[in-house]
Design brief:
alpha/beta; TIM Barrel
Length: about 425
């Protein structure tokens, strides 16, 4: 039984009630949209300490934070600290993308601590285990892959990225048209290498029904990955990307028929003027399924500042209908992010999500900004700090910049010439 099964039967679950309360909407609205497939609540029945969140139409824009070990940096304690920092900064979900030592132990440790939905990319572990067994990636069997998928589901993972839309036909489009950066998705590259070497169809596509059975059993939400997301502006919105999206639209239909919750992942590097088109295409072809986007990044040259590049694109994407933004850190294109970079990535993406919610007319988001405006008018610095998206930085910055104040209710920018004070006295 899944949230969708129950929603279609008219049943209200505890998770639906919790999400409705958070979002300040009726629980019946949540139930209807889950039944339609336009809202998902990733909530694996084995994730015992979960505080569920909803993703989709009519809800606030959510933010995801990625972390996880690599073969060069593989310390579980560090990843648990990143989890705490990400959630403290406002992440609504997290993903464990570990490829280092002790992948299973890392995931299980994160699940024990994570009260927000947890996602994974099972093909990463399947690939690592194949290599550790002394074989090549292309020697991975279908059963090897599905064994890991079921392991993640059984452990309690709430959503999994699966690159089901990357087919042999899609690869033909990639070859025929050509790209500057080819394939930048790790999971997409693993699947592509396997398909071309074995001259066989993508097992996640060919055996999609097997995947649906596992997802239904544990109520795992499928996050249909974009293995051909553009890795540069030059490759955005090309034939291979759109062909994969067409396939994903068909797979959304099949997931809904099986009463499995599903969302769709999107690009990637996209010029600012193409973002709205990308969102509209996804929403139309995938019939309103929740859209989970990486960025989008609106320029390729902001190395070290890609959290800003991503926030610019994320605001546009979410204001046009994207539901879920995957953060990008300052370390994107450089290396594994450290703890402070994780925090910066979440904060930048939370700003983008909030700005988009205001543009979409969300009353809760508007209320927050009105409260800040009133606090500024009354020169209530404590309230301003409390209302800030990053209260920690606001407090530290206030203290650092105003050590020599002559008036406690002012700041060193204007001092006694504060416009708020001058106008208050004049009026």
């Amino acid at each position: 039984m899944t949230q969708m099964t129950k929603a279609k039967a008219g049943e209200i679950t505890l998770e639906m009630e919790q999400v409705a309360q958070k979002e300040e909407v009726s629980v019946e609205f949540i139930r209807e949209k889950i039944a339609e497939g336009k809202i998902v609540i990733p909530a694996n029945k084995n994730h015992k300490n979960l505080e569920p969140n909803g993703f989709g139409e009519g809800l606030t824009t959510k933010v995801n934070a990625n972390f996880g070990t690599s073969e060069d940096l593989s310390e579980i304690d560090k990843e648990l600290e990143k989890l705490k920092v990400a959630v403290s900064a406002g992440a609504d979900a997290v993903m464990d993308l570990s490829t280092g030592d002790k992948i299973t132990e890392t995931r299980q440790a994160i699940l024990t601590e994570a009260e927000v939905p947890l996602g994974t990319v099972p093909i990463y572990q399947a690939t690592v285990e194949t290599l550790q067994a002394g074989k090549a990636i292309v020697d991975m069997t279908v059963d090897d892959l599905f064994k890991v998928i079921e392991e993640h589901a059984r452990d309690g993972v709430d959503f999994i990225t699966v690159h089901c839309g990357l087919t042999l036909e899609t690869i033909r489009h990639l070859k025929d048209e050509g790209r500057v950066t080819d394939i930048v998705s790790r999971g997409g590259s693993f699947i592509t290498g396997w398909m071309l070497h074995n001259e066989a169809e993508n097992p996640l596509y060919e055996y999609y029904d097997r995947l649906l059975e596992i997802a239904y059993k544990y109520d795992v939400t499928l996050s249909l990955g974009d293995g051909l997301r553009p890795g540069s502006l030059a490759d955005a919105t090309d034939r291979s990307q759109i062909h994969e999206l067409l396939v994903l639209g068909e797979l959304v239909d099949r997931a809904r028929e099986a009463e499995v919750q599903v969302m769709v992942e999107g690009p990637g590097h996209v010029p600012f003027d193409q973002i709205e088109t990308n969102i509209q295409l996804q929403k139309e072809l995938c019939k309103g399924a929740p859209f989970y986007v990486l960025g989008p990044l609106v320029t390729d040259i902001a190395v070290g500042y890609d959290h800003i590049t991503s926030a610019i694109g994320g605001t546009m994407a979410a204001s046009c209908g994207a539901d879920f933004l995957c953060y990008v850190t300052p370390a994107e294109h450089i290396g594994l992010p450290n703890i402070e970079e994780v925090r910066e990535g979440v904060i930048a993406t939370k700003i983008a999500a909030h700005a988009a919610d205001i543009a979409k007319g969300n009353s809760s988001a508007k209320k927050q900004d009105l409260q800040m405006a009133k606090a500024r008018k009354s020169l209530d610095w404590d309230q301003q700090i409390e209302l800030a998206i990053d209260s920690k930085k606001a407090k530290e910055s206030r203290a650092a910049h105003n050590q020599n104040l002559k008036a406690e209710d002012a700041c060193t920018m204007c001092g006694s010439y504060c416009a708020m004070k001058v106008v208050e006295e004049a009026l």
